[in-house]
Model the fold of this input.
Amino acid sequence: MTDQPRDTEILPPRYDFTTIEARWQAYWLTHKTFRTSSDPTRKKAFVLDMFPYPSGAGLHVGHPEGYTATDIYSRFLRMNGYNVLHPMGWDAFGLPAEQYAIQTGTHPAKTTQVNINTFRRQIQSLGFSYDWDREVDTTDPTYYKWTQWIFLQLFKKGLAYQAEIPVNWCAALGTVLSNEEVIDGKSERGAHPVVRVPMRQWMLKITAYGDDLLNSVETLDWPEGIKAMQRNWIGRSEGAEVDFTVVGDAGTLRVFTTRPDTLFGATYMVIAPEHPLVAKLTTPAQKVAVEAYVEAARHKSERDRQAEVKEKSGVFTGAYATNPLTGKDVPIWIADYVLGGYGTGAIMAVPAHDDRDFAFAQQFGLPIIQVVSKDGTRWQEHPQQALTEYGVAVNSGRFDGLATLDVKKQVTDWLVAEGIGERKVNYKLRDWVFSRQRYWGEPIPVFYPVISAVDGGKMREVGLTASNVADLVEQGSWQIDYTTSHAVPESELPLTLPPTDDFLPTGNAEPPLAKCHDWRFFQQNGRWYARETNTMPQWAGSCWYYLRYIDPHNPDALASPEALKYWLPVDLYVGGAEHAVLHLLYARFWHKVLYDLGVVPTAEPFQRLINQGMILGEDGEKMSKSRGNVINPDDVLKEHGADTFRLYEMFMGPLEQVKPWSTRDIVGSKRFLQRVWNLFEKPYVDDAPDAAILRVQHRLVKKVTEDSHVLRFNTAISAMMIALNELAALPALPRETAEAFVLVLAPYAPHLAEELWAKLGHAPSVGLAPWPTFDEALCVDDTIEIPVQVNGKLRGKLQVKKDTPADELARMALADPAVMKWTEGKEVLKVIPVVGRMVSVVVKG
RNA sequence: GCCGGAGUGGUGAAAUGGUAGACGCGACGGACUCAAAAUCCGUUGGGCUUAACGCCCGUGAGGGUUCAAGUCCCUCCUCCGGCACCA
Done:
């Protein structure tokens, strides 16, 4: 082994990816090869990745998948003359850094910087063509200045408000979570228990944009599934609110229904346990039972409630209300299958035509009256289930025989005319709980007056320190007047986080910032004020980062209007489907607010969206530490190099598809690059390629061009492999063909392409060289093979000139011996020649 | 239950309604080598066969449209993702 020195005269040098990749990565960085600037004279493309949260675990093999796709696309567009904005940044506020800080005592700012550096190094080692001068970091005060600025615009428009509402409190995380962050009654992060408790919170009125967010979903070039999820989450439903008069009491009980046509079948009513009228409606005889039920419902977790979907629970209040259509009195029940937070928190129950009401009525023996029928006939027996589909009205007095849609309209008209109801649209979407009781987030730029608990006057005491004020507030002799919120003046932004070491949660609902007295309390014109100590959720920074990329160093605006006009909207946005609701809905909301303010010129931020499919472990399961099936990108890079890694991830299958990693298969991509290297070790000739080689070349360029346009990178790579297989057989390589090959390879394996481009005698960078062209006519062989089918089965093949006309094809097909075997003695009914494609013969007998 | 998406060789996959399985992996056979690795060449959907020629079957199941269906239509099954007491 050791006594056999490598004979460099005979063996071609191996493809040395380590040296090549280091060389070109350094070149691109120092020369800022891919730096971008606005240029209104050029066509633009904004190609965006969902920026990562820089976790301590480092890059995952899932990250490079989307990043490689956008990088190939960006490089492809650049070579095709586009001015491409392709940036990267860090979504660096958030719970994990803070959790880590709590465990280790390391300040989150420090952890975050370390993690960002790791991520940047890893991302750069993949050779992506980002414009690093545009890197953004959501935790940078010059960045979050504008996050706070946007919050102030929301505040001024009345879209940010405080409310004392039941929120999703997660004790383990020490913070509240938005509805979107709670999955199955547990926190999205960490799966910790979540309970509903009332707390003062900052809210964003996303519901004000419900219709807008819903309607413009239609204009987006997004995957159908994501659009459906957005529609679903917004959950618009049209119906009516109806007043029922409570018996023996002048009051009314208002319900929301989407089926006013079934009012005749409303045989009882249900109010939520949280409903404000519970106490008033409950009769003395039922008081004990109702109070016990309400108390039990309050202590049920979300999870408990969901566990009993099949089994309903409830208690009769003792009260009755009058059905306005039938005039009959119906009992009012209280049950937790009616949600306090949706509609009016009360329903009219129509057990015959609603599954939930049916189950409840069955369980408690309440009457079930059919008022809709599929065919006009009535049930002869007790029904087994509710009929929820539309049909025609029965048992509905003057509406009998009318179709459901007509009954809906007429009943609603009647309710409106009588003044006991109105048309109403409801949304599942709730306002966004925007405050978090954590340290590592953007401070909410709001403050409140500190007032005396004794006389309510504003404090003018002199000679006090912030600590004194904190003590007085603690003792309760002074109070913070949360009802009077003042915005921090825009000129004072950013309101920076105090650099405290005491960032641990307080153990109760009070945020860590409350402990920073010198930051929290300040005096102005002799009066004391207290800053808001809640911070913003992680989603805030990611709601608008794509805008900052457009003009990242602008000190006077989040971005200049000219730059925004040039670059918006994002032409391609690639990221994981896990952000289908949260990030994409929030970002769209902020964008629409900014659009209404005239800050951004488009109604939607992300015109086209693609979700890359998850990369699974080799066992076909989701990668996770506990399964031990995690592939570390650093290891792959070290062993195979960045070009191989990129190529393999794209060759695995369609971008959108979920696919398992295969350590075995990746060698195929590496072999390909090695063989490309070997190909360019051949001598070059300057003669024009002959027709056969020219055909290989033009087919290659055509296929890669077309597939790159539509992001079908797997088939583009396959086309390169096919071309390589053909060219590898040649003794020498025509220069023209060699150059075309390097150029189409460049977006996919950029390091190797730069190396070969230099080897061909060109100056860098191949990434900025013009894309090669192809001639459709040169892609087709002069003679082509035409299959002949007889009765749908392949029976023969014709070798013909490519332009052979239809009648000639038909004649040749019928004269072909292989075909004649199947037509002999049979009647030829029809011959269908398709020029350049095939001939189909139909025979009988 | 509802909403999305997908079912093709041993395997990742490919196929404007027009020769199903390109390309890659693996496997098998061969070359090179003392040998191995690497590399190169060949074969590789299943079955039948007089095995050179050739035939039958085959894209989750069943129907339909068409000269022609993996592709379009209907019914069903399975898997994946999301939502789920929202009246």
Summary: The longest strand of chain A covers residues 160-170. Residues 1-12 of chain A have pLDDT under 50 and may be disordered. Residues 316 and 333 of chain A are 4 Å apart (CA to CA).
